Amino acid sequence: MAWAAEDVGREVFLGFSAVSIGLFYGLAALAIATFLGGFFLRARKYGRGRKVGRVTLRSILSGLEKVATQRTVAKGDPYVGVAHFLVFWGFVVLLIGTTIIAIDEDVIRVILGKPEWQFWKGTFYVVYALAMDLFGIGFVVGVLMLAFRRRRRPARLDYRRVDLGEGDYDRSGYSLDDKVFLGLLLFLGVSGFLLEGFRIAAVDFPPFEKVSVAGWLVGTITAGWGPVANDWARLATWWVHGLAALGFVAYIPYSKAMHIVDDVVALMVTDEDSAKALPPVADPTRPGYVSLDSFAWVELLEMDACTKCGRCHEVCPARASGAPLSPRDLILDLREYADATADIPLWYGTGAEPAHRDATEVAGGVIGTDTLWACTTCMACMAVCPVGIEHVPTIVQLRRRLVDLGDVEPGLQKAFQALGRGGNSFGKSAKQRPRWTKGLDFEITDVRAEPVEYLWFVGDYASFDPRAAEVTQTVARLLHDAGVSFGIGYESERNAGNDVRRAGEEGLFELLRDHNLEWLREAQFSRIVTTDPHSLNTLRHEYPLDVEVIHYTQLLDALVTSGALRLGRLEGKATYHDPCYLGRYVEEFDAPRNLIRATGLELVEMGRCRENSFCCGAGGGRIWMDDTGLEERPAENRIREAVALGDDVRFFVVACPKDMVMYSDAVKTTGYEDRLEVVDIAQLLERARATVGAAVG
Ligand code: SF4
Ligand code: SF4
Questions:
Q1: pLDDT tens across 555-605, in order?
Q2: Fold for domain 568-696?
Q3: Three-state SS for 379?
Q4: pLDDT tens across 595-611, in order?
Q5: What is the CATH number of domain 278-407?
Q6: Nearest C-alpha to atom 3 of ligand 2 is from which residue?
Q7: Check whether domain 420-560 has CATH 3.40.50.1860, yes or no
Q8: Is 256 in the pocket of ligand 2 (CB under 6 A)?
Q9: 332 Cα: distance to centroid of ligand 2 (angstroms)
Q10: What spacing in Å lies between the alpha carbon of 684 and ligand 2's midpoint?
Q11: In this predicted structure, what is the pLDDT of residue 170?
Q12: Which of 138, 328, 459, 502 is geometrically suited to a Cys-Cys bond with 620, CB 3.0 to 4.6 A?
């Protein structure tokens, strides 16, 4: 294509008087000032938060990659992923296009007075016009896809609260803002194409404008109105489109549109590992979050980044079991509280429940005590959140405050006391910890006296609970048979403190950790293996240890692969439950599956598996709390999911002592005890080993 550069281009203010142009610039200045004012209020709010260093080159690049690919939006929801990708890139290209016009017209021609420097013409203009139309079409299609989805009312976009009854709250402002936001985007896209069509018709369809495909099509339709009507339509549309665009700029910091800015920053500063290694208490004289100033600036920004997509609400086991907790509502409540405290005006009203405005405490006031104690710290919310919001660390900080105030659930209080006395939640003396070893026909090495390759950190449930202790004996036999050099800490071991910490008792966690570190530092070993995924997380991520810490399924997988453990074959089908602390926290999904397949069993996956696994309900100290008020316990919900796989799935395989306890109970309370056998992977291996002779014979 060869056009003379001077002939190819467009006039921005075609047919406008100087007064009209002046009026437009005046309104533009007003819109920008309104935007900057709102932006300043937001920045001031974030500035009130605690300083934490999160911005690194790596975090910025990682955030930009997520923003560019939109993969966190597409994760688990490809329809929304495609729609949002079109809207996002359409918006970016249209924004760049508008900026190019502003530079070429306002800066170079008007401010610098150098028309000879203008570049928005010739081939550059043709490429520009083509890109603007193609991305503009994608933008409109994406917005329509999102609007169409909303009309189908997906459950996750239902803003009803789980902790308050109908009529006790008002969420109409949220729904209105959603509609206005989408409506404005659609209006800007469609009116932009109309304006383009009127303009192309007004300048008699210059051939190079054929690249403006949508505008050209509109122009060919409206040209039939005649030049006078077309020009009136052009002028009217110019003003309507221009005013809508300026209105949108002004609207951003006071509405849902702020997520356009906040999400980009949130994805650049989010710490995906923040729940795995919790931050220490910042001020020991005042643990936990007391007021707005206690929150980190990142958390205040993340609250504004929430798009209310409801993904976290949908996957939360507490919400599913009828507990008064929705991670979405928790973030929105905190946002409302922060906005009310920082005097952020929102165009649709504050949205804040009056209680939030007047609450003197965040923990137990803005966010209810029962809501905070309902969390299992399963991290499912964080795993699905498209903008990287870190719910779990915030919940733990608020729990720390509850613990400091003495507002602790009675069962949890009892467990804390037992843990403080004997280092375990069972109320047993430390001497009783190695009692499970009595049933073995061999001695387990005492790591405090002899060096070993593997120090086996057994954990509380694996040591004290009778059902879990049976599995522990099985693991011991397998390791012994495979010739592994291993030993235990006998009565020196204490609860590793993972759940104590997540229940907000930082002081007790530190006591337990320091005790364990003392004997661990005196023992001689190369690696740590643990039965309990909860202990695995804290030993790996929160203990200052310089050794590899692995799960027993990882060790067993290596032993089976190397041939140190020979297996026969079992018949039948099994499903596997990914423990939250082995899956989402430590990202081990394959070792347990390898082992199940190695036994010959056919593995049938539940719909919620791997990183989308559904919590058993035990984590974060929940196992110590009363759950009689729940509509359905998470473990029961999970058992029903497994049963729905079909009659031929006989085994419900677990890899966590707490899961053994939770699911052994749930299979009884749901009445499926004869239908589904809850079995640990180690027990399956032992059964498969028992068939080795039969297989050979
Ligand atoms: S961590 Fe789990 S239980 Fe807690 S809010 Fe998130 S999804 Fe719900
Ligand atoms: S916290 Fe994240 S997942 Fe939950 S509603 Fe907000 S954006 Fe969606």
A1: 999 999 999 999 999 999 999 999 999 999 999 999 999 999 999 999 999
A2: Rossmann fold (3.40.50)
A3: coil
A4: 999 999 999 999 999 99
A5: 1.10.1060
A6: 385
A7: yes
A8: no
A9: 9
A10: 39
A11: 85
A12: 502
